[in-house]
């Protein structure tokens, strides 16, 4: 008996073919450490058409957790659940189609899934469609309506986007609602909410509104977003330094997209770890004193994928050459000591990596916020330091023309002395990134 669930009864229902009971039984067995029995149950539920079971199973197949890794099978199972409008499956399938992970890359199909989700009122799809349109340069009432529809359906990321807009004076929501959403955001751990509450001191928190009517999403929305993000025009880059080769790209993404990265990464931030060059294992390293996280495919959404593709475009490579998007977060006193981003041949853990996807010739960073002191990206040998504004990118080269490590690329993040620093980072590989 666990917390009011009669396991005997659940087991009998599962045995009699009740897919929901099989799904719950799988969770119970997994909690009891009975992995094989749990997976058997989960597969039964999935075969019987249980949508959450299909989603869970495909996640396991994607990561290799609990079952053998089988990415193309994961895509097939997800597609079955997505065809039945399963929200999480549609969302993950759209990312995999955009990435071409386990299937052929098909950006228009990925966007079509997002649009279908939004039309069905899926709250994450509503918000993500608004942000994707913004990335594509569409900033209009439809985006506001999409965010409102998402926020009033309970999506705190969308609600906080509207709060930021309110603070910039866009007039969409009243101060009372902005205060209410900010309080809710703080409760739910939205990283930007805490600091904003002081801005609403005089206001009385309003009641939460009813879900707004779904906005009408026109047919041509698909053609507006048909170009793959990596093929969008690249903002002008400026060469800052020859050695190491450093370029800056002002405004690679807008502030709302920076906020989206921050909000999406926050729940998974953990003290940064480094790869031990000898063992290949991850370990804590006092040298790298920050919080970080990496978005694996199952953590991504179409907006984050598109941002990653933009970062690759800024480095002049196809999106499959980028490692997964990472986020670093520094509080006062935190830093990232001088290091090279490129892999070190000969070090045990890194030879296999070099073999698989080649060297890391470039790094792309996006500065996600401002208002902090310290925290510049500093090339310690070259004597060059840089700190971009919100949404600005820096692209630098870690190797010389002959592929050897450029010792001038040694860099650090200097300690943050006041406020907090958020940065998105993508390491670029020589070959397609295999993970
Ligand atoms: O935070 C920074 O400015 C540097 C980050 C960095 O060096 C990296 O992500 O490799
Ligand atoms: Fe670095």
Give me a quick take on this structure.
By secondary structure, the protein is of the alpha+beta class. It has 16 helices and 17 strands. The structure holds 2-oxoglutaric acid (AKG) and fe (ii) ion (FE2).
List the helices and strands and how they pair.
Elements: H1 7-15, H2 19-31, H3 35-47, H4 51-63, H5 71-83, H6 87-99, H7 107-119, H8 123-135, H9 141-152, H10 156-167, H11 175-187, H12 193-196, H13 221-224, E1 238-241, E2 246-249, H14 255-265, E3 270-271, E4 273-275, E5 282-284, E6 288-289, E7 291-294, H15 302-314, E8 326-330, E9 335-339, H16 348-357, E10 362-367, E11 373-374, E12 377-379, E13 384-386, E14 393-397, E15 411-413, E16 416-418, E17 421-428
Antiparallel strand pairs: 1-2, 2-14, 3-7, 4-5, 6-9, 7-8, 8-17, 9-15, 10-14, 10-17, 11-16, 12-13, 12-15
This protein binds 2-oxoglutaric acid and fe (ii) ion (FE2).
Q: What are its keywords?
A:
binds fe (ii) ion, eight-stranded antiparallel β-sheet, 3 domains, Serine Threonine Protein Phosphatase 5, Tetratricopeptide repeat, single chain, five-stranded antiparallel β-sheet, Jelly Rolls, alpha+beta, binds 2-oxoglutaric acid, 435 residues
